[in-house]
Each structure stands twice: as C-alpha cells, then as structure tokens.
Amino acid sequence: MTTSHYIAGHWVEGQGSDCISVNDPALGQPFAELMAASVSQVDQAVAAARSALPAWKSTGASERAAFLRGFAEQLGQRREALVTLQMRNNGKPRHEAEIDLDDAIATFGYYAGLAEQLPSKNRTVPLAAPGFTARTRLEPVGVVGLIVPWNFPLVTSAWKLAPALAAGCTVVLKPSEVTPLIEQAYGQIADALGLPAGVLNIVNGKAETGAALSNHNGLDKLSFTGSNSVGSQVMRSASAQCRPVTLELGGKSAIVVFDDCDVDQAVEWIVAGISWNAGQMCSATSRLLVQDGIADALLPRLQAALENLRVGNPLTEEVDMGPLTSQAQWLKVASYFATAREEGLQCLAGGHALDREGWFVSPTLYTDVPKDSRLWTEEIFGPVLCARRFASEEQAIAEANDSRFGLVATVCSADLERAERVADALEVGHVWINSVQAVFVETSWGGTKGSGIGRELGPWGLSAYQSVKHVTRCLG
C-alpha cells in the first residue's frame, strides 16, 4: 500500500514524514498503512494539474462527458470491493455502503449530462445600448484543490470531482487520512479510462499535506468539506490568496415533530436522522423538537426504537448501526456522555460506550435538555439525540433557528400547508418534509450561517467550478 499517491498519471510512493495507519473500527485494529505525501509531492501534483489544464479545458464537452460516464461505469464494476471497503474502513452497514456507491455513480452520470449541455450555455446577451453586441462564456475556474472528509469518502469526492471535471477544471484531491484507501479507486479508474495525465491527482496525508495544498499558490479554487475548526483555517489561507472557496462545514440540525403526526412514522424518521452512519453526519438531526401533545406518546416509543437498534460489526453481523469510524471520534463522543452526566441530563436511552472490542457507542436519547447545554448547541458527530418540547409553531421555528449552524432540518406534520410554511421559515439550506434524509444529485447541498459557503450538487455544483466571462464588441 506504499504507492498510494497518483500524480501526473503515475502511482508513486509517499515521501512524507507521516505514516498513516488505516483502521477497522469494528475491531479497533489497523489493517493497512501508507506513507503520506511530502510537501514536494503536493507541489508536483499541483504542477501536473496546471500543466494539464490548457488541453483539458479545451477538450470537447461530449468527450468530457464520456469520461464521466466511464467513471460511473467503472465504479459499478468495482461494486463489491468498494462496498466491502466502506464497511471495513468506515464501519458502515452494508445497506449504507451500497447507497454511498449508488450516490457516487449517480453523481458522475448526472454531471456527464450537464457537461453535454455546456455549449448551449454560451450565448448572446441582448443589450439596450445600440451599436454593441455581447456574449457570455462559462469557463472552468482552473486548477482546484479538493479536500474531503472521512464520514462519506467516495461520495463527497464524487460531489466535487464530477462537476469539476465536467466544467473543464483539473484537480488535486486530498482524501482524509482516516479513510485514504477508497479514493484510490478514482486513480485506478483514471488509468483504465485513459484520462489525460495530470487532470486528476491524488495526494494522501495528514494536516501537513492538507495545509500544503490549501496554502498552495498554484490553485485557482479550493473546495473543502469537514469541521468548522479546519474550515476556518482553509478560509484564512484562501483569503491570503484572494481565491474563491467552497466550504461545507458542520451542523446541529433540528427535526420538528408536530402533534398531528403518526407516532410510529415520526419515530422512523427521527431514528434515521440520528443513527445513519452512526450519527457521523453534518446533517444529523440531533435536536428533536416535539410538540407537547405528542411527546408523551412518542418519547417511550423512540426510546424503545433506539434500544432495539442492532449495533455491531457490519462484516460479520446483520446490523442497523456500525461503530464510530475512528478512536478519536469515539473518545469525543464519550466525552459528551461525561458532560451529560455532569450537567445532570435525563438519559432515556444509551449514554455510554459499549463494552466490546472496537469503537462502538450506544444510540442515545436525552430529554428536556436545556438550551444552554453543550449537548444542545455543539456538534457531537455521533448517535446522540437531544429532545425538547414546544407548544406552538412559532416556538418551534424560533428554537430550531436558534443555532449558529444552518445546514438542514426535517419537519414532520400531517398538515402539509403548515409543514411547507415551517420549511420556508427555517434558516437552513435543505429541508425534508415527512421523510428520511433522501439526498438527490439534482438538488442543492450546503447551508447558511456557520454551516458553510456555497452549494454542491445540482447545477449549482457545476457553477461552483465555472467563471463567467462576457465579451462585448463595438459594431461601429
């Protein structure tokens, strides 16, 4: 596993000082290791992308679309290996790993279609002033750095890589050091398809590698998904270079349940919003706002549902929820359990790590959590749900919006007119009504407030990698 970096169309050994240990979180044990890329190798990757840019951005839209469809097809051909790797390195249950792969495949297919439409987007612009003509060109922004997280590897990289290549950009991709292996499939696919050397480069590493990429003056744009603490550092480096940045950061999202909702259905939506990927989602609906009239019926059923979730090793057991992906995350979630005990929070379910090998914690529910509790205000990134009751629609909206984050929310109500009204009032980037968190490539993804800058997916995801040029000509 030493030749883990894909630079200028070649697999090369890492020359950095960090050794990356790749772990199976269900066992708490490493199963692979690789050497990080050096700062010099990051320079080489950026230089390769810069060298490849002129030819790639001049490549016809239909040819770029064919490459993107090739990525989709090749991902499908590697299905079992990639699903198994998601299960082993992330701890995802099989059904979640399969959805991840299907999401990545759909993303490349979707942006192949948008790439084919690009020629029609260059158009004449009508002018009110006589004697002039003008036209618009949508051009690739240039060389982009893509930094992706560990909770949805393969998926988040597809959300960035596919639109960047469709737009005509060349890229340097840095996967998370926690899950560095699965993104190597993109380099293997590039080889198989004959993607021109330097169009896609992959460098693995820890903080030093990420800093070398985000600070590099050879980039024209940076797209980052991850924590707010690292995102602020990325934003500072972008400001020093005066270059555009897309940030998809944290969340502390609300799920609002009105008293006209079917209790069993509401429990299903609530459990999915906090237990999917063991709660390791920026979109986890970890703040439950439940109306007074339904709370006494809903909370005991929610407690039972969480306690009945099958938690275990997805490679050896039939499970609903796997382990946390890293020991660091396991320790972080455990620290919040300790904080809850210190704050005297009422725990209806869970509230502890599981006594077994690996990085497992119990699905957890705290009730009547004060608004100033750290567990109510801070992103935990684990299967930890905090509940509060509300009396009126106005109170629900106010408490849902009372957060420094604004990524997503869910509204559960049989009154669809009210549900739509509440959805419009929530200060977030995406709202689900009476649904699990179904994410479609045609819709946008991103948030308000501290949840980031810009949007991914849909046509907005493509626009993030395009610049607009106007050409105005005097007819005289």
From TrEMBL:
SUPFAM superfamilies the UniProt entry points to? ALDH-like
Single annotated GO MF: oxidoreductase activity, acting on the aldehyde or oxo group of donors, NAD or NADP as acceptor
Q: Does the keyword Iron apply?
A: no
Query: Could you name the active-site residues?
Result: 248
Q: Where is the Aldehyde dehydrogenase domain?
A: 11-471
Q: Which Gene3D superfamilies match?
A: Aldehyde Dehydrogenase, Chain A, domain 1 (3.40.605.10), Aldehyde Dehydrogenase, Chain A, domain 2 (3.40.309.10)
Tell me if Oxidoreductase is a UniProt keyword of this record.
yes
Keywords from the named record = Oxidoreductase
Could you tell me which InterPro entries the record lists for this protein? Ald_DH/histidinol_DH, Ald_DH_C, Ald_DH_CS_GLU, Ald_DH_N, Aldehyde_DH_dom
- What Pfam families does this protein's entry cite? Aldedh (PF00171)
Family assignment from sequence similarity? Belongs to the aldehyde dehydrogenase family.
Name of the featured protein: Aldehyde dehydrogenase
From which lineage does this chain's organism come?
A: Bacteria, Pseudomonadati, Pseudomonadota, Gammaproteobacteria, Pseudomonadales
